[in-house]
Design brief:
CATH architecture of the largest domain: 3-Layer(aba) Sandwich
Strand content: 5-15%
CATH superfamily of the largest domain: Type I PLP-dependent aspartate aminotransferase-like (Major domain)
Largest sheet: 7 strands, mixed
CATH class of the largest domain: Alpha Beta
Structural class: alpha/beta
Distance between the termini: 57 Å
Number of strands: 15
Radius of gyration: 23 Å
Shape: globular
């Protein structure tokens, strides 16, 4: 049976003009206000690969990729065909009192990329994987403690938020999970001190921190793994953003030749269509959780192994392999880093460009010249990190590039494009950044007029 009034794509077109009013009334009004304030309410109509198209047909280069979700680009034809094939096959999805064939296939393919691990637990998101990791670590070791790093982001659900070092997210929700301890990122001495009590179940770390694109020294991750072995603590690599080719390796930990006890994946594995998360771990850990038949479902999630999610993961890995997107990430990332780093000596506001593969941080810092310093200080006094909006907004409005600051109060803009970007896209990025950064050094100028508007908004907000 076909319902004549249920053409969802037609519904999208008919109601598009009401998207802001519907969100204001029924969803997140504050997000609507943010988008209108910074001029991002352009009404995107279409996504294709690394490009977005607004209601007027203008093409944008997406350097945000849904926070890393669209590694293979939007609406990849292979992924769409995989999802259609599942729907057309009328498979016996989510029987629950059965095991999933497609989950077995995806687990098998994931573990080929991480051969030192043996088992996979599927979830619906990265945050769910973090929650599972906390439970698995405590259950397997019998210890209560979890150690995480300053500036970490591991998710916004209750347990994951307890490991997320950002007061903007934590405020109003504390007290959080007990037994969670923060140490400075890239500090082995602090880690050893925390682990020496032998009460820590796990140390969880992003190999490259998403907030700020912070990269550890060469000895930190190998040293952390060694300390975890020494004190009987499990080492968990949160690769939810860095995994699946993002940094020019399948996993970011491969840059340091580290083999964690658990690896957490999500975001890119979804292909951008169906939420999925995967926790990869050792059999010895897994068997301590699911240790007898009456504990076969001691942890799970209703929709976690649904056929559409499994198909999305399988198709994503297939595209990654056939289009050599891991290698592409390494190559294009190096091109962008080289071009942007070459600008650093010429612009006093541009401090550093860092990253691996297509996870790149462009950091700005206080200038030395008096005129620029006065303008910088005005912005900083109104709202720390506000300067970066003087870069991201003109990039969007004038150069049709979508990107954003890497976190609250950060001076780093994060580039996280689809791994499918081309050489021409890299030149687009270089030209746009050069133009906008050059304009930011002209005081007075159009960019600093924007700064005054942002300061006024910040002052009104705090009043």
């Amino acid at each position: 049976m076909i319902y004549p009034n249920l053409d969802v794509s037609e519904m999208f077109v008919e109601r598009e003009a009401q998207r802001s009013s519907m969100h204001t009334r029924h969803l997140n009004e504050q997000l609507v206000r943010v988008l209108k304030t910074i001029g991002y309410d352009v009404g995107f109509q279409k996504g294709q690969g690394q490009y977005l198209f607004d209601r007027d047909g203008a093409r944008y280069l997406d350097l945000l990729s849904g926070f890393g979700v669209f590694a293979i680009g939007r609406n990849h034809p292979v992924l769409r065909q995989a999802l259609k094939s599942v729907l057309d096959a009328e498979l016996p999805n989510l029987v629950q009192l059965d095991v999933s064939t497609l989950a077995g296939v995806l687990a098998e393919r994931l573990l080929k990329h991480v051969p030192y691990l043996d088992k996979v637990f599927f979830a619906n998101s990265g945050a769910e994987c973090v929650e599972a990791a906390i439970k698995f670590a405590r259950g397997a070791t019998g210890r209560p403690g979890i150690v995480y790093c300053a500036h970490a982001f591991h998710g916004l659900s209750y347990g994951a938020l307890s490991l997320t070092d950002d007061p903007n997210f934590r405020a109003g929700f504390e007290p959080l999970l007990p037994g969670c301890t923060s140490i400075p990122f890239d500090d082995l001495a602090a880690l050893e001190q925390a682990l020496s009590s032998r009460q820590v179940a796990a140390f969880i770390v992003e190999p490259i921190q998403g907030k700020g694109v912070n990269i550890p020294g060469d000895d930190f991750l190998p040293g952390a793994a060694a300390l975890c072995r020494k004190y009987g603590t499990l080492f968990i690599a949160d690769e939810i953003q860095t995994g699946i080719g993002r940094t020019g390796k399948f996993l970011a930990v491969e840059h340091w030749n580290v083999e964690p006890d658990m690896v957490l994946l999500a975001k890119a594995l979804s292909g951008g269509h169906v939420p999925i998360g995967a926790l990869l771990t050792r059999k010895s850990i897994f068997d301590k959780i699911f240790n007898q038949m009456d504990r076969a479902v001691v942890h799970g999630s209703t929709f976690a192994k649904n056929d559409l999610a499994m198909a999305a993961g399988i198709a994503t890995l297939e595209v990654m392999e056939h289009e050599k997107l891991v290698e592409q990430s390494a190559r294009r990332g190096a091109e962008i880093k080289l071009a942007l780093t070459a600008m650093v000596p010429g612009y006093e506001l541009l401090k550093e460009v860092r990253g691996k593969g297509l996870m790149i941080g462009v950091e700005f810092g206080p200038p030395k010249s008096l005129k620029l310093k006065a303008s910088w200080n005005l912005l900083e006094s109104a709202n720390k990190g506000l300067f970066c909006q003087l870069i991201t907004v003109p990039l969007f409005k004038e150069h049709k590039i979508l990107t954003q600051v890497s976190g609250h109060g950060s001076h780093t803009i994060k580039l996280l494009p689809p791994l499918t970007i081309t050489e021409d896209d890299c030149k687009w990025i270089e030209t746009a950044f050069d133009s906008v950064i050059a304009a930011s050094h002209k005081v007075p100028g159009a960019i600093w007029s924007l700064g005054k508007t942002l300061v006024d908004n910040a002052v009104r907000k705090s009043a």
